[in-house]
Q: What sequence folds into this?
């Protein structure tokens, strides 16, 4: 019933493969930046002519677009909160996997140390058997031999 020695890399690989099969969702976030910056100075547009007739904010389509509605503001806040929650979950998941990786590596290191210690103990036991056999052989072969302890 001999066990095969496994490397710590194989253990880590199996842990990650096993965890990646459980969570197989892939999240792709695309960012676009369409703003352009130019070094050239563009002339300022001429100021609009003064209105000849008084206009109200409700009649002016530009003024209506500038004021965001309460629904848009709350929707934007909810979207930001959901995205921040998503980022926090992803960071927490990465931290958890890092802690698991550290535990696996430390466990492999401890197992390796215990294996080395066990081999040293076996070597000392074999050495003790050899010394005792030599003492017994000297004791039986020479009648006046007194072993030194």
A:
């Amino acid at each position: 019933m001999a066990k095969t020695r496994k490397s710590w890399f194989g253990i880590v690989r199996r842990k990650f493969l096993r965890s990646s099969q459980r969570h197989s969702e892939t999240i792709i976030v695309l960012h676009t930046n369409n703003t352009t910056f130019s070094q050239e100075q563009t002339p300022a547009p001429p100021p609009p002519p003064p209105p000849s007739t008084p206009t109200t904010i409700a009649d002016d389509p530009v003024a209506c677009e500038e004021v965001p509605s309460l629904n848009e503001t709350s929707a934007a806040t909810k979207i930001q909160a959901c995205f921040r929650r998503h980022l926090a979950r992803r960071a927490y998941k990465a931290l958890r996997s890092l802690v698991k990786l550290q535990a696996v590596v430390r466990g492999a290191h401890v197992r390796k140390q215990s294996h080395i210690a066990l081999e040293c103990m076996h070597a000392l036991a074999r050495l003790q058997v050899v010394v005792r056999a030599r003492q017994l052989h000297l004791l039986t072969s020479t009648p006046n031999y007194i072993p030194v302890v």
Summary: Residues 70-141 form the longest helix (72 residues).
